[in-house]
């Protein structure tokens, strides 16, 4: 048995939560008896998703910088101070041997407090352009696990380990056939399938771009799995009602392995987790990066694949004019679809969770 005690801090979106959970499971597999505590942001989705995976979680009173309303940021310094005090209290009670930060609201106050208490920390940077918080934390971290090459511009070179981004086991060990995937969504077996997914919360511009030209798109010999997020679900469901055998509208897809298996072509945001999963799934992809992500990191993420002829990119502002045209291009060019699929698969890392877990074990030894 192990006496390893680990805090994993972060969350806010599925892109932070699912890698955190994957590392947690890997630690328990590789070092049985490891005691884990997750720390997230109160009222964010990790408070629901992490316990569903069987882990304990504590929520901090923390929020991110609100770019839409400067007035809402007046309380931010107080929340940061309070969250750091809460983090110190949690660390004192749990007594971790190491703290892992996966990004998101709770990551900074917990790792910052831990570094102030001389506890080893590991930063997991998921994007090809590092965020401000991780750049600060990386200076005092024992190790920085990254998903992309050439991250020396952000972190001390000697601390960097290229691990890739952890994905859920159901995807890293994907064994669902296309036939099984299509049957899961009640779709025809031999019809080309498009998966439209905007991250766990949905993507407004992608949804609106599809909605505006759905009738035109349905003149093609295709079928669609359309994950809208909660806010757009009702509207999309009504719009697609007349195509209900060919367009499956869902607010959230839990079984993403089935969705990836079913699809030949994917339209997606360019979050780090989505990219890691799509490399493993090996599908032709059109990325529509979220333009308001910190430091526009989604565009940097997507460009790393575009430069390898492994994906196409449409700017968020060009969705209505370019997205459907590029989609039709792939639909009608099987050679392009196959070469994109082949190239993106070359970039897949299936064991990132265990690579990071081994690093955690090594640093805590």
Q: What does this molecule look like?
A:
With 365 residues, this protein is α/β, with parallel strands linked by helices. It has 2 domains: 177 residues, 3-Layer(aba) Sandwich (Rossmann fold), CATH 3.40.50; 172 residues, Glycogen Phosphorylase B (Rossmann fold, 3-Layer(aba) Sandwich). It is 43% helix and 16% strand. The chain is built from 16 helices and 13 strands. Helix 4 packs parallel to helix 5 and helix 8 packs across helix 14. The model has no long low-confidence stretch (mean pLDDT 92).
Structural class: alpha/beta
Shape: globular
| CATH superfamily (homologous) name of the largest domain | Glycogen Phosphorylase B
- Unreliable stretches (pLDDT < 50, length at least 5) are none
Output mean pLDDT: 92
Number of strands: 13
- Assembly level: single chain
> How are the strands ordered across the major sheet?
3-2-1-4-5-6-7
Strand and helix order: EHEHEHEHEHEEHHEHHEHEHEHEHEHHH
Question: How many separate helices?
Answer: 16
| CATH architecture field of the largest domain | 3-Layer(aba) Sandwich
Distance between the termini: 14 Å
Keywords:
globular; Rossmann fold; alpha/beta; seven-stranded parallel sheet; 16 helices; 2 domains; 43% helix; 365 residues; six-stranded parallel sheet
Secondary-structure map:
Layout: E1 5-9, H1 14-30, E2 35-41, H2 46-52, E3 57-60, H3 76-94, E4 98-101, H4 107-116, E5 121-125, H5 132-140, E6 143-146, E7 160-162, H6 169-172, H7 178-184, E8 192-197, H8 204-212, H9 214-217, E9 222-227, H10 233-239, E10 247-250, H11 256-262, E11 265-268, H12 272-281, E12 284-287, H13 297-306, E13 312-313, H14 319-331, H15 334-345, H16 352-364
Parallel strand pairs: 1-2, 1-4, 2-3, 4-5, 5-6, 6-7, 8-9, 8-11, 9-10, 11-12, 12-13
Helix pairs in contact: 1-16, 3-4, 4-5, 7-11, 8-14
């Amino acid at each position: 048995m192990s006496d390893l005690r680990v805090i994993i801090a972060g969350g806010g979106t599925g892109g932070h939560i699912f890698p955190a959970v994957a590392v947690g499971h890997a630690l328990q597999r590789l070092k049985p008896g490891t005691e884990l505590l997750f720390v997230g942001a109160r009222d964010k989705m990790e408070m629901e998703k992490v316990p569903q995976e069987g882990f304990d979680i504590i929520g901090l009173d923390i929020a991110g910088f609100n770019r839409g309303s400067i007035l809402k940021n007046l309380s931010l310094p107080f929340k940061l101070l309070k969250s750091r005090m809460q983090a110190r209290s949690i660390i004192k009670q749990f007594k971790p041997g190491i703290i892992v930060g996966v990004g998101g609201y709770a990551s900074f106050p917990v790792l910052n407090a831990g570094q102030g208490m001389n506890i080893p920390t590991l930063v997991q940077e998921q994007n090809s352009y590092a965020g401000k918080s991780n750049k600060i934390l990386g200076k005092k971290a024992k190790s920085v696990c990254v998903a992309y090459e050439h991250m020396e511009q952000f972190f001390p070179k000697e601390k960097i380990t290229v691990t890739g981004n952890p994905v859920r086991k159901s995807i890293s060990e994907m064994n669902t056939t296309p036939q099984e995937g299509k049957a899961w969504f009640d779709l025809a077996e031999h019809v080309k399938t498009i998966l439209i997914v905007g991250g766990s919360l949905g993507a407004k511009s992608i949804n609106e771009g599809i909605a505006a030209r759905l009738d035109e798109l349905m003149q093609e010999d295709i079928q669609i799995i359309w994950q809208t997020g909660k806010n757009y679900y009702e509207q999309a469901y009504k719009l697609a009602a007349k195509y209900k055998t060919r367009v499956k509208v869902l607010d959230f897809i839990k079984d993403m392995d089935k969705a990836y298996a079913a699809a030949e072509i994917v339209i997606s945001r360019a979050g780090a987790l989505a990219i890691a999963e799509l490399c493993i799934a090996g599908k032709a992809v059109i990325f529509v990066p979220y333009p308001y992500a910190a430091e526009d990191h989604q565009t940097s993420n997507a460009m790393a694949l575009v430069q390898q002829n492994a994906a196409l990119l449409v700017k968020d502002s060009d969705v209505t004019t370019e997205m459907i045209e590029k989609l039709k291009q792939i639909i009608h060019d099987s050679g392009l679809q196959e070469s994109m699929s082949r190239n993106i698969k070359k970039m897949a890392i299936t064991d990132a969770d265990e690579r990071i877990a081994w690093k955690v074990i090594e640093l805590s030894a």
